[in-house]
Design a protein that fits this description.
- The protein is α/β, with parallel strands linked by helices and 158 residues long.
- The chain is 34% helix and 18% strand.
- It contains 5 helices and 6 strands.
- It has helices at 31-44, 63-73, 90-100, 121-124, 145-157, and strands spanning 2-7, 48-51, 79-82, 104-111, 127-130, 136-138.
- Strands 3-2-1-4-5-6 form a 6-stranded mixed beta sheet, with helices on both faces.
- Strand 2 (48-51), helix 2 and strand 3 form a beta-alpha-beta unit.
- Helix 1 crosses helix 5.
- The longest helix is centred in the first third of the chain and has 14 residues, at 31-44.
- The protein is globular, with a radius of gyration of 14 Å.
- It starts with a strand and ends with a helix.
Protein backbone atom coordinates (compact mmCIF):
# COMPACT_ATOMS: atom_id res chain seq x y z
CA UNK A 1 0.00 0.00 0.00
CA UNK A 2 1.62 3.27 -1.12
CA UNK A 3 1.64 6.17 1.32
CA UNK A 4 2.83 9.70 0.56
CA UNK A 5 3.27 12.95 2.43
CA UNK A 6 2.78 16.05 0.30
CA UNK A 7 5.21 18.39 2.00
CA UNK A 8 5.25 22.14 2.21
CA UNK A 9 8.45 23.41 3.84
CA UNK A 10 7.83 26.95 5.07
CA UNK A 11 5.43 26.84 8.00
CA UNK A 12 5.95 23.09 8.41
CA UNK A 13 9.69 22.56 8.88
CA UNK A 14 10.19 26.16 10.01
CA UNK A 15 8.19 29.13 11.32
CA UNK A 16 8.68 32.86 11.72
CA UNK A 17 10.62 32.08 14.92
CA UNK A 18 13.22 29.94 13.13
CA UNK A 19 16.67 31.46 13.52
CA UNK A 20 18.53 29.18 11.10
CA UNK A 21 19.06 30.47 7.58
CA UNK A 22 19.52 28.86 4.20
CA UNK A 23 22.74 29.48 2.26
CA UNK A 24 20.92 32.34 0.48
CA UNK A 25 19.77 33.91 3.75
CA UNK A 26 16.12 32.81 3.75
CA UNK A 27 14.39 31.14 6.69
CA UNK A 28 16.11 27.83 7.30
CA UNK A 29 14.86 24.44 8.42
CA UNK A 30 14.67 23.27 12.03
CA UNK A 31 16.24 19.85 12.65
CA UNK A 32 13.74 19.08 15.43
CA UNK A 33 10.84 19.50 12.99
CA UNK A 34 12.46 17.26 10.37
CA UNK A 35 13.03 14.67 13.09
CA UNK A 36 9.32 14.76 14.03
CA UNK A 37 8.41 14.20 10.37
CA UNK A 38 10.88 11.32 10.07
CA UNK A 39 9.59 9.59 13.21
CA UNK A 40 5.92 10.07 12.22
CA UNK A 41 6.65 8.53 8.80
CA UNK A 42 8.49 5.67 10.45
CA UNK A 43 5.61 5.02 12.87
CA UNK A 44 3.16 5.10 9.95
CA UNK A 45 5.20 2.40 8.23
CA UNK A 46 7.16 4.53 5.79
CA UNK A 47 6.18 6.46 2.72
CA UNK A 48 7.25 8.84 0.02
CA UNK A 49 7.81 12.55 0.38
CA UNK A 50 6.39 14.57 -2.49
CA UNK A 51 7.45 18.20 -2.47
CA UNK A 52 4.46 20.50 -2.91
CA UNK A 53 6.27 23.53 -1.47
CA UNK A 54 7.48 26.55 -3.42
CA UNK A 55 10.94 25.08 -2.84
CA UNK A 56 10.18 22.73 -5.77
CA UNK A 57 10.75 25.71 -8.08
CA UNK A 58 14.45 25.75 -7.19
CA UNK A 59 16.97 24.09 -9.45
CA UNK A 60 18.14 20.84 -7.79
CA UNK A 61 21.69 22.23 -7.86
CA UNK A 62 20.69 25.49 -6.15
CA UNK A 63 22.40 25.83 -2.77
CA UNK A 64 19.07 26.19 -0.94
CA UNK A 65 17.65 23.05 -2.58
CA UNK A 66 20.83 21.12 -1.73
CA UNK A 67 20.43 22.43 1.84
CA UNK A 68 16.83 21.09 1.98
CA UNK A 69 17.88 17.68 0.64
CA UNK A 70 20.75 17.47 3.16
CA UNK A 71 18.44 18.37 6.09
CA UNK A 72 16.01 15.60 5.08
CA UNK A 73 18.80 13.09 4.44
CA UNK A 74 20.16 13.66 7.95
CA UNK A 75 17.01 11.91 9.20
CA UNK A 76 16.82 9.26 6.49
CA UNK A 77 14.30 11.12 4.33
CA UNK A 78 14.43 11.91 0.64
CA UNK A 79 12.22 13.64 -1.88
CA UNK A 80 10.66 11.10 -4.24
CA UNK A 81 8.74 13.56 -6.43
CA UNK A 82 7.20 16.96 -6.74
CA UNK A 83 3.96 18.51 -7.86
CA UNK A 84 3.64 20.92 -10.77
CA UNK A 85 1.30 23.82 -10.15
CA UNK A 86 1.11 27.50 -9.45
CA UNK A 87 1.11 28.76 -5.86
CA UNK A 88 -2.61 29.32 -5.69
CA UNK A 89 -3.51 25.93 -7.20
CA UNK A 90 -1.51 23.64 -4.96
CA UNK A 91 -4.51 21.33 -4.55
CA UNK A 92 -4.84 20.98 -8.31
CA UNK A 93 -1.17 20.03 -8.51
CA UNK A 94 -1.59 17.35 -5.84
CA UNK A 95 -4.75 16.02 -7.50
CA UNK A 96 -2.91 15.70 -10.83
CA UNK A 97 0.07 14.05 -9.14
CA UNK A 98 -2.23 11.46 -7.56
CA UNK A 99 -3.89 10.78 -10.92
CA UNK A 100 -0.45 10.08 -12.43
CA UNK A 101 0.68 7.92 -9.48
CA UNK A 102 -2.02 5.33 -8.88
CA UNK A 103 0.35 3.42 -6.58
CA UNK A 104 -0.37 6.05 -3.89
CA UNK A 105 -3.34 4.71 -1.98
CA UNK A 106 -3.05 6.82 1.16
CA UNK A 107 -1.65 10.29 1.74
CA UNK A 108 -1.59 13.34 3.93
CA UNK A 109 -0.81 16.95 3.09
CA UNK A 110 1.29 19.05 5.47
CA UNK A 111 0.84 22.76 4.72
CA UNK A 112 0.37 26.03 6.57
CA UNK A 113 -2.02 27.45 3.95
CA UNK A 114 -5.37 26.25 2.60
CA UNK A 115 -4.84 27.33 -1.04
CA UNK A 116 -7.49 25.59 -3.20
CA UNK A 117 -7.58 22.37 -1.14
CA UNK A 118 -11.21 22.81 -0.07
CA UNK A 119 -12.30 22.40 -3.71
CA UNK A 120 -11.16 18.79 -3.55
CA UNK A 121 -12.95 16.84 -0.78
CA UNK A 122 -10.41 14.00 -0.72
CA UNK A 123 -7.55 16.50 -0.30
CA UNK A 124 -9.35 18.64 2.27
CA UNK A 125 -9.95 15.60 4.48
CA UNK A 126 -6.23 14.78 4.41
CA UNK A 127 -4.90 18.31 4.94
CA UNK A 128 -3.05 18.88 8.20
CA UNK A 129 -2.61 22.61 8.77
CA UNK A 130 0.59 23.57 10.53
CA UNK A 131 2.35 26.43 12.24
CA UNK A 132 5.45 24.33 12.57
CA UNK A 133 4.86 20.58 12.34
CA UNK A 134 4.46 20.32 16.10
CA UNK A 135 1.46 22.71 15.95
CA UNK A 136 -0.78 20.79 13.60
CA UNK A 137 -4.56 20.50 13.31
CA UNK A 138 -7.14 19.07 10.94
CA UNK A 139 -8.43 21.32 8.17
CA UNK A 140 -11.61 19.28 7.81
CA UNK A 141 -14.23 18.63 10.47
CA UNK A 142 -14.32 15.07 9.13
CA UNK A 143 -10.69 14.10 8.58
CA UNK A 144 -9.68 10.93 6.77
CA UNK A 145 -8.30 8.03 8.80
CA UNK A 146 -4.73 8.50 7.58
CA UNK A 147 -4.83 12.16 8.66
CA UNK A 148 -6.05 11.13 12.12
CA UNK A 149 -3.35 8.48 12.49
CA UNK A 150 -0.55 10.69 11.16
CA UNK A 151 -1.55 13.59 13.42
CA UNK A 152 -1.56 11.22 16.40
CA UNK A 153 2.00 10.15 15.56
CA UNK A 154 3.11 13.79 15.33
CA UNK A 155 1.56 14.58 18.71
CA UNK A 156 3.19 11.52 20.29
CA UNK A 157 6.59 12.68 19.08
CA UNK A 158 6.47 16.43 19.68
Amino acid sequence: MGFAVFLDVDGVLNTSTTVKQTPYGYTGIDDARVEILAHALEKYGGGDIVLSSDWKELNPKHDDYVYLVSKLKKYGLEISGQTFDSNLERGKGIKEYLEEHSEIEEFVILDDMTFDFERYKKLWERLLLTNGIENVKFASRTPAVEAIVFLDYIYMLS
